[in-house]
């Protein structure tokens, strides 16, 4: 089956047809819901001054001398400006769109009204070309969150998460103890994407597999490894690294040569069991807060474990005061990432209802685009995916029947990881969980934030190819 016509292209934005193909209608009903749910009306001169302002616009990003990327970003920087808020603070953020297409900003990991969430499928209005729209919400919960474009990219690899439209949003707890000497924020991203038929590049991929995305360069923040300023530290410091995988589609496994990471939070939520690890794994959209004790003076590389990824630029130099010489890399010991080591062994609360989902690929064939199915259906047939009752606890059992990874994200809620494969666990709270190829996980969430909530794979191409559904409330 030729699925290419079912994948929306941002080049079609002026006709509005891409919106229809994603199953979202901007009409009187949706707009009426949106305006009553926490997102202000389109900006007018009478509006009060915002707490923060973001401007979406084209920019030229110099990753390294001679390596310039034409992309889009917020306030002419990548990542966009750091938004640091206090837990519970009521905030107004104005977003101005100085591009040629409509766009939308998603506040990832926050509890907020659906209309302010920044997902068109939930009823959030788009930010029109040349217009400004205000997002208003209370900042919660505390932790490392982020914001990013939640637009359709489709076949256009210049848009949405393929671009530089992302940034950190840190919500400080009301009683932050601040037990560290320095804070470093690093966002990993892959650049220069292109569609490829994998079977044309190497032996092995089945002939019916569709197009995938590959990249030519990568960076932490706005610079490739070996360019830009190093992270400067002193011996004896405790450094808090807030790490984000803002890649459109790629997993990141990283290490800091000569050091270990003590994981204190995942997706912004404190873990029950802090563990020190040599390597850190982040799927797209995942975050980790880690403490590193600076106890081995030298000049080191914090970067991707895979040599090819570091050659693409995915790394940064960490330089101790008073040290000189070339940056050093040491390959870490082999390690398999396991969410359960950060959890408790206590039994979890029994759910009120158990829901089972199977994720499968519908191959597009060489030169075509794949489709993704949840229990046999793709978006928009997955609206609704399931319906909840407020206050009830739901166990979502997910089986990945494909050879692809899937970082599954639930909007507007946090969930508890209760099982990974055959290993039970408790207490690890996340908003995105990676499902490795041919794997299963179980997550529990309480329906405590009424309104439509999107569940989807955070790979931009998988999402655009139908891997999402809407969780609704009675």
What do these coordinates show?
The protein is 5% helix and 42% strand. It is mainly β. A six-stranded mixed sheet has the order 13-10-15-20-17-18. A six-stranded mixed sheet has the order 24-23-26-31-28-29, with no helix packed on it. Strand 17 (261-266) and strand 18 form a beta hairpin. The radius of gyration is 21 Å and the shape is globular.
Beta strand %: 35-45%
Helix content: under 10%
- Helix/strand-derived category reads mainly beta
Query: What's the gyration radius in Å?
Result: 21 Å
Mean pLDDT across the residues is: 91
Subunit organisation of the chains? single chain
Number of strand segments: 33
List the helices and strands and how they pair.
Blueprint lengths: L16 H5 L6 H8 L3 E4 L9 E13 L2 E8 L8 E4 L3 E8 L7 E4 L23 E7 L4 E7 L16 E7 L9 E10 L2 E3 L15 E3 L2 E4 L10 E3 L4 E8 L6 E5 L4 E6 L2 E9 L2 E3 L4 E7 L5 E6 L2 H6 L2 E6 L32 E10 L8 E4 L11 E3 L4 E8 L5 E5 L4 E6 L2 E8 L1 E4 L4 E7 L6 E5 L2 H5 L3 E6 L1
Parallel strand pairs: 2-5, 4-9, 10-15, 14-22, 23-26, 25-33
Antiparallel strand pairs: 1-7, 2-3, 5-7, 6-8, 8-9, 10-13, 11-12, 15-20, 16-19, 16-21, 17-18, 17-20, 21-22, 23-24, 26-31, 27-30, 27-32, 28-29, 28-31, 32-33
């Amino acid at each position: 089956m030729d699925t290419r016509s079912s994948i929306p292209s941002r080049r079609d934005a002026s006709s509005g047809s891409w919106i229809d193909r994603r199953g979202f209608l901007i009409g009187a009903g949706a707009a009426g819901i949106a305006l009553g749910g926490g997102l202000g009306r389109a900006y007018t001169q009478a509006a009060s001054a915002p707490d923060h302002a973001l401007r979406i616009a084209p920019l030229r990003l110099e990753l390294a001398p001679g390596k310039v990327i034409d992309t889009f970003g917020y306030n002419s920087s990548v990542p966009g400006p750091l938004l640091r808020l206090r837990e519970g603070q009521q905030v107004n953020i104005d977003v101005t769109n100085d591009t040629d297409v409509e766009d939308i900003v998603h506040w990832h990991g926050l509890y907020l009204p659906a209309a302010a969430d920044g997902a068109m499928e939930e009823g959030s209005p788009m930010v029109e070309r040349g217009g400004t729209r205000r997002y208003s919400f209370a900042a919660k919960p505390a932790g490392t969150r982020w914001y990013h474009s939640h637009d359709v990219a489709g076949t256009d690899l210049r848009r949405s998460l393929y671009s530089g439209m992302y940034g950190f949003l840190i919500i400080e707890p009301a009683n932050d103890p601040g037990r560290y000497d320095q804070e470093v924020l690093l966002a990993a991203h892959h650049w220069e994407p292109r569609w490829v038929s994998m079977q044309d590049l190497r032996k092995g991929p089945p002939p019916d597999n569709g197009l995938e995305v590959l990249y030519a360069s990568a960076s932490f923040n706005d610079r490739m490894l070996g360019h830009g300023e190093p992270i400067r530290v002193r011996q004896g410091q405790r450094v808090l690294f807030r790490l984000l995988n803002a890649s459109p589609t790629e997993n990141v496994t990283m290490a800091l040569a000569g050091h270990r990471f003590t994981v204190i939070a995942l997706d912004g939520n404190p873990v029950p069991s802090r563990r020190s690890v040599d390597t850190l794994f982040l799927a797209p959209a995942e975050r980790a807060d880690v403490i590193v004790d600076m106890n081995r003076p030298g000049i080191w590389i914090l970067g991707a474990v895979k040599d090819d990824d570091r050659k693409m630029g995915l790394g940064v130099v960490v330089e101790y005061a008073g040290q000189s010489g070339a940056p050093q890399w040491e390959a870490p010991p082999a390690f398999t990432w396991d969410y359960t080591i950060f959890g408790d062994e206590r039994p979890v609360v029994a759910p009120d209802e158990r829901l089972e989902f199977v994720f499968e690929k519908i191959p597009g064939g060489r030169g075509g685009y794949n489709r993704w199915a949840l229990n046999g259906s793709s978006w928009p047939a997955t609206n609704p995916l399931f319906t909840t009752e407020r206050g009830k606890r739901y166990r979502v059992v997910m089986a990945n029947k494909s050879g692809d990874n899937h970082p599954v994200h639930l909007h507007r809620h946090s969930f508890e990881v209760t099982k990974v494969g055959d290993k039970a666990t408790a207490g690890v709270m996340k908003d995105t969980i990676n499902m490795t190829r041919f794997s299963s996980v179980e997550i529990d969430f309480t329906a405590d934030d009424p309104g439509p909530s999107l569940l989807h794979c955070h790979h931009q191409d998988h999402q655009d190819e139908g891997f999402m559904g809407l969780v609704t409330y009675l």
